[in-house]
Amino acid sequence: MRLATVGTSFITEHFIAAALKEGSFEVTTVYSRTLDKAKVLADQFHIPLIQDDYNALIHDPLIDVIYIATPNDTHYKLAKEALEAHKHVILEKPFVSHHKEYKELLEIARLNDRYVFDAIIPMHLPNYQILKEAILKVGQLNLCNLSMVQRSSRLNALLSGEEPAIFSLNHSGGALMDLGIYPISICVGLFGKPLEATYVCHKFSNGIDLSGAITMRYHDFIVVATIAKDSTGLNFMTFSGDKGHILVDKAPSLISSISFVEKDKSSELAHPQDASPMIYEIKDFYEVITLKDTERYNAWMKLTSDAFEVIDECRKKADLVFAADREN
Prior knowledge:
The chain has 328 residues and is of the alpha/beta class. The chain has helices spanning 10-22, 35-45, 54-58, 75-84, 99-111, 126-134, 155-159, 175-191, 278-291, 294-318, 323-327, and strands spanning 2-6, 26-31, 49-51, 65-68, 88-92, 116-119, 141-149, 196-203, 209-217, 222-228, 236-241, 245-248, 259-261, 266-268. Strand 11 (236-241) and strand 12 (245-248) form a beta hairpin. The radius of gyration is 20 Å and the shape is globular.
């Protein structure tokens, strides 16, 4: 299947590299509003075509799938137009700005007999299922701690008076949308939707959240997730019970290590994974399209739906209002 990319950030570079490595999709076209940027990326990966006309891109009969990695607030509109042009869509995380946009995109995809995928990595990793099974070893689960703390390369621009899209309410940015989506999606996938979710955050003068703490309450245990784009720190997950705990001792988004820690011993459970973690979601998306595996697709999108209901609840409690909220 032939694929075009939209956006020229580092995440698009990672996606193209993974797509070329995995091999299911033929990456034929790079789109950018600026042709020079498209050419740089296309030349880097020896991709034959570039485009700066989005309408022409989505109506190109030689393109089957559109990968979109643009500012968060543009996801809904660009995906809607591509789906209505009868293209499958892969949307970089966060999928959309809020749950209402999610519901509308899923309906548009259904009406046009196309798929729209949420490109969030963890649930497609081989070690995700191992993690789910490993948690059963801890006995009575009582407390989960997750941390994603990554000082943004765009923070200095914000501090100097600029407003990068990732730090803008007008572009559905902030720590919750960029980083919080990971612990929320992981826990919703592992345990289902929580009974209650809250978010307490540190905001910049423009109202965007730079860092904060998410809590999710389940029947028998609590999840606490700390996220930050204004700090450096540790990245990990722990799932603690009365018989031991599971430690994921690196970025939660990658699940590259899974240790079962008991009182006097520790055992590693994770399997080796490819250095390009996006290859797993790419393979999954290709299989769903070609096999018309609606059951697997529906399971993924139910997870995305539940995650965005949690995110919307957290944003409401933290008083984080996006321009996209007012437009819909």
